[in-house]
Design a protein that fits this description.
211 residues; seven-stranded antiparallel sheet; 16% helix; 37% strand; disordered N terminus
Length: 211
């Protein structure tokens, strides 16, 4: 039987393509702390704009697992929530930080979600991006498992670039060993994507009946 081209297929294709659209950026973050297991120290999460021109952005930490959270954190800037539940950080002030007492296990993981105009609609006029950083510290608040030393002491970071892209970096350890932090980007479906897929499948059935 001859199959003729049907305009409905254009609609189906558009729906299916739309279902793969991205909304923000997510990274599954894994930190190998086997070398300091049972040690009590601190986790340091920061989300800071480069300067006053940095576009608005939000970082959300969720699905935290591993190690032991000790008490309430110290926070600075626009930070809400606590670990191991959801923490939200918005780059609306020069310095956002959550500093948490923590007993290290073999590893810990969390989902980092980045969103906002800085990623979705870069304005082309900003002169600095925003950086999410993860620091690991001993009980004396000295950086550990990183070559970055004093200052930020980040073991890993994700930079939001001026064009809306992101650059994850895991810093070497002070011994020159590979970074203990790994970032794996996760595909983020646009809200309503599953509904579009369902619409596409329904249209496929309709076209099949008409052929």
């Amino acid at each position: 039987m001859k199959v003729s081209f049907c305009p409905e297929r254009v609609i189906i294709g558009a729906c299916l393509l739309a279902s793969f659209a991205q909304a923000g950026v997510q990274y599954q973050v894994t930190v190998n702390t086997a070398s300091v297991v049972t040690t009590t120290g601190f986790l340091d999460f920061q989300f800071n704009p480069g300067n006053a021109s940095s576009q608005s952005a939000t970082a959300v930490l969720s699905n935290f697992s591993g190690g032991t959270i000790n008490g309430a954190p110290s926070t600075t800037g626009n930070v809400s929530g606590t670990l191991p539940t959801t923490v939200t950080m918005i780059n609306s002030t020069p310095f956002q930080e959550l500093f948490q007492s923590f007993t290290f296990g073999p590893s810990f993981t969390f989902l980092l979600s980045l969103s906002g105009p800085a990623l979705d609609t870069p304005n082309g006029t900003s002169t600095a991006g925003t950086t999410f950083g993860l620091g690991l510290y001993d009980s004396g608040q000295n950086p550990i498992l990183t070559s970055q030393g004093a200052g930020t002491g980040f073991a890993g970071q994700v930079q939001i670039n001026l064009n809306g892209s992101t650059t994850p970096t895991g810093f070497l350890q002070s011994t020159g060993a590979p970074s203990v932090v790994t970032f794996v980007q996760v595909v983020v479906p646009e809200p309503g994507a599953m509904g579009l897929v369902g619409l596409g499948l329904a249209a496929l059935l309709l076209v099949k009946r008409r052929v």
